[in-house]
Specification:
- By secondary structure, the protein is α/β, with parallel strands linked by helices.
- The protein has a single domain, classed as Rossmann fold (3-Layer(aba) Sandwich), CATH 3.40.50.
- The chain contains nine helices and six strands, in the order H-H-E-H-H-E-H-H-E-H-E-H-E-H-E.
- The strands form two sheets. Strands 1-6-5-2 form a four-stranded parallel beta sheet. Strands 3-4 form a two-stranded antiparallel ribbon.
- The longest helix is centred in the middle third of the chain and has 13 residues.
- The radius of gyration is 18 Å and the shape is globular.
């Protein structure tokens, strides 16, 4: 009851427009999107027919079967999942997260709940996908690290922001780039700086968006080369 009163007062005093439909956001927990736009967003339940490895939604009515899209066969991670589709409220929330190191309460809730319902429970360490030094200085923070810290705090899993480094300042991925261009842009971009800290670990790799999978695959590659066991990937949204 008090939360409803507080949200109503805030909405009246500091009205915020939804970043999608421009209607008023009446609940602070919803962040930059209104409740109606959240309800239009495809949040994954785990009941979707999807690729067992990368989580890509497949056009099939058959559920609870192990199936593969085969586009991710050569990727080095073991499993990748996202909280939902990169659209409406999730896409607006991700864009905002790239600008401000803040994740709204509802976004945090979705992210944590998604992890808890996945076969990632044997993970022993969380590692965020790193930014290059140049990009970090420009932005002032790493949005993947923001998400990793939230998850680490809530599931009591060790966070490691030092062992994986992006040694090359790769160009930002654009919507017009095909998968081959994305793969080429991040090839050899990462290195493990503290091999002893990843050796024998089951890594939960965190990023904001899964697009082609090239970035997280190359991260998984160098982690496994230095002795990591399984590498799982968890993102807020999936664009492909």
């Amino acid at each position: 009851m008090l939360d409803k009163i507080f949200n109503s007062l805030v909405a009246l005093t500091y009205p915020q427009a939804c970043q999608i439909c421009h209607n008023s956001v009446e609940n602070l927990a919803d962040g930059v999107a209104c409740r109606a736009c959240w309800e239009k967003t495809n949040i994954f339940s785990g009941e979707e027919t999807s690729c067992h490895k990368c989580g890509a939604t497949l056009q099939s009515k058959t559920k609870n079967v192990v199936t593969f899209c085969h586009r991710c066969d050569e990727y080095f991670y073991d499993l990748a999942r996202a909280a939902g589709k990169y659209e409406f409220a999730l896409s607006a929330s991700v864009v905002h997260l790239k600008r401000e190191p803040f994740a709204a309460a509802y976004l945090q809730k979705l992210f944590i709940a998604r992890f808890q319902n996945l076969p990632f429970q044997d993970a022993t360490k969380i590692i965020p996908v790193p930014l290059s030094k140049k990009r970090f200085l420009e932005r002032g923070f790493n949005q993947a690290a923001v998400l990793a810290k939230i998850l680490s705090k809530n599931i009591n899993l060790k966070l490691d922001e030092q062992s994986l480094r992006r040694k090359i300042d790769t160009p930002m991925h654009r919507a017009s780039m095909d998968n081959k261009a994305r793969e080429t842009s991040v090839k050899n971009a990462f290195e493990v700086t503290r091999p002893k800290l990843v050796e024998g670990e089951t890594i939960l790799l965190i990023d904001d968006v899964y697009t082609s999978g090239a970035t997280v695959s190359n991260c998984a590659k160098v982690l496994k080369e230095k002795g990591a066991g399984k590498v799982y990937v968890l993102t807020i949204a999936k664009a492909s």
